[in-house]
Amino acid sequence: MEVVNALGRRKAAIARVYVKNGSGKIVINKRELESYFPSSLLQYVVRQPLNKLGVDGQYDININLQGGGYKGQSEAARLGIARALVKINPEDKPALRAEGFITRDPREVERKKPGRPKARKRFQFSKR
Question: pTM of this prediction?
Fold first, then answer.
């Protein structure tokens, strides 16, 4: 099998995912998964699609992550991995969709409006 690539996005984070047959090694920005995401919860989020299909040790995954924070980056990586697994085996799509791994979360930060401190917050109103 040649390298399968996919793109995952979440908030401001972009993950370019490259999957090939291997021993289950996950490398993010030339660092191991455990050193890039020290939190076990974020490591679990990245591995969720692999665990769901039971293919955790079958593929080597190389991920380029840019932008966003650690939560958005982990969920972008999850989406990219799920999309790559669907490219490898289209029969896996219903199982991943049922868990919500195929759906791109469309929520983005709302822009700041002029004359206000934040997007919706207003300055304190004074009647007198």
Answer: 0.90
